[in-house]
Amino acid sequence: DAGVTQSPTHLIKTRGQQVTLRCSPKSGHDTVSWYQQALGQGPQFIFQYYEEEERQRGNFPDRFSGHQFPNYSSELNVNALLLGDSALYLCASSQGGAGYGYTFGSGTRLTVV
Amino acid sequence: QKEVEQDPGPLSVPEGAIVSLNCTYSNSAFQYFMWYRQYSRKGPELLMYTYSSGNKEDGRFTAQVDKSSKYISLFIRDSQPSDSATYLCAIEGSGGYQKVTFGIGTKLQVIP
């Protein structure tokens, strides 16, 4: 049973560029949440998608946007990259969105230079 | 004041010791309480969750919640080197479909 799959695993981008990260949820899960985890910090909630709609959003600027597809997979897009966007980006899938049901992927390590 | 406060450690204990990890939170609306374990270069994995005050036990792990004090704990008995990881407390509001707020994580090292 495949868990949550994220791609790519590592990425290096230049300041000002745009990036797209991808997530395939665990089989049977319909909700995807995205988190940013800076080095030495806990994960910070970016947004959550359910039924292809953004259901709730954390305190992140509009440069962060997302999408959920009919097969429940999801993308996270970040425009106009800043050095401070360097972090581990985690995708968590769940059935219905409750936190106790989260399954996390291993993340995408984004480095902005 | 942060919504969830957690001592980042690091915490170093000998194998076999009892480990106590703690978090405090500020919002009494929080209803679901979770502990995640995160190994280096991996995503967090759920260890325990509870939604009421009191204790919940699962093998060597015990989660404790005191809603009156807004204090949650995780106890690890007979700690093993394989328990060396970062432990994140996480809290969610009521009704589900709420964002999950994580603590900063406590880095634990169990020395053989």
Could you explain how this protein is built, in words?
The complex is a heterodimer of chains A (113) and B (112). Chain A is mainly β. Helices cover 0% and strands 50% of the residues of chain A. In chain A, strands 2, 4, 5, 6, 9, 10 and 11 form a 7-stranded mixed sheet that branches. Chain A is globular, with a radius of gyration of 13 Å. Chain B is an all-beta fold. Chain B contains no helices and 11 strands. Chain B has strands at 4-6, 11-14, 19-25, 32-38, 45-50, 54-58, 61-66, 71-76, 85-92, 100-102, 106-111. In chain B, strands 2, 4, 5, 9, 10 and 11 form a 6-stranded mixed sheet that branches. In chain B, strands 1-3-8-7-6 form a 5-stranded antiparallel sheet, with no helix packed on it. Chain B is globular. Chain B starts with a strand and ends with a strand. The model of chain B has no long low-confidence stretch (mean pLDDT 92). Classes of the chains: A mainly beta (113), B mainly beta (112). At the A-B interface, β5 and β10 of A face β4, β5, β9 and β10 of B.
Strand content of chain A: over 45%
* SS elements, strand count of chain A: 11
Distance between the termini of chain B: 37 Å
Global outline of chain B: globular
Q: Percent of residues of chain B in helical segments?
A: under 10%
What is the tally of beta strands of chain B? Answer: 11
Q: Number of helical runs of chain A? A: 0
What order do the helices and strands come in, and which of them pair?
The complex is a heterodimer of chains A (113) and B (112).
Chain A: E1 5-7, E2 10-13, E3 19-24, E4 31-37, E5 44-50, E6 53-57, E7 64-68, E8 74-78, E9 87-94, E10 103-104, E11 108-112
Parallel strand pairs in A: 2-11
Antiparallel strand pairs in A: 1-3, 3-8, 4-5, 4-9, 5-6, 7-8, 9-10, 9-11
Chain B: E1 4-6, E2 11-14, E3 19-25, E4 32-38, E5 45-50, E6 54-58, E7 61-66, E8 71-76, E9 85-92, E10 100-102, E11 106-111
Parallel strand pairs in B: 2-11
Antiparallel strand pairs in B: 1-3, 3-8, 4-5, 4-9, 6-7, 7-8, 9-10, 9-11
